[in-house]
Structures are given as structure tokens and as C-alpha cells.
Write a structure and sequence with these properties.
This protein is an alpha+beta fold and 76 residues long. The chain is built from two helices and four strands, in the order βαββαβ.
Length: 76
């Protein structure tokens, strides 16, 4: 199992809608609205590193209102 954290900066003030859309993505365990430099952090659990790429680069980035993402893969 590969765990990753995807930070999300939104283009809109619709954090609740974006959170729900991200949580609906297969492989996303949960997403949290946070205060700070980013708007949300998604916790991703998938089988392979390629799965992380699919979830982050294809699925999360395609959610309407998502501006940018950064992905961090857990090493433990």
C-alpha cells in the first residue's frame, strides 16, 4: 500500500464542494479543509506509486475549482 498526501490550492471559495468532490475520488481516504498556504489536504491510499499519479494528476487536478496540487509520498 502506498500512502500519499496531496495539498490542494483552490481557485474558488467553494472549499466544501471541492472537498466533497475530492473525497469521491477512488483512492482518496479523506480530505481536510485546512488553514494556511493551501486550502485542502487529501489522504490517498492506493496500491502502487502509479496509482498515486493517477489520483493526484488526473483525478484531483480535474476537479472544477482546483488550482494547483503538490503530492508527498509517505516513506514509512
Amino acid at each position: 500500500m502506498v500512502r500519499a498526501y496531496v495539498t490542494v490550492t483552490a481557485h474558488t471559495g467553494e472549499a466544501d464542494r471541492i472537498q466533497a468532490a475530492i473525497e469521491a475520488v477512488e483512492g482518496v481516504e479523506r480530505a481536510h479543509i485546512v488553514a494556511g498556504d493551501v486550502d485542502l489536504i487529501a489522504v490517498v491510499d492506493v496500491e502502487t506509486p502509479a496509482g498515486v499519479k493517477t489520483v493526484a494528476a488526473k483525478e484531483i487536478q480535474s476537479v472544477d475549482g482546483v488550482g494547483s496540487t503538490q503530492t508527498y509520498v509517505a516513506m514509512d
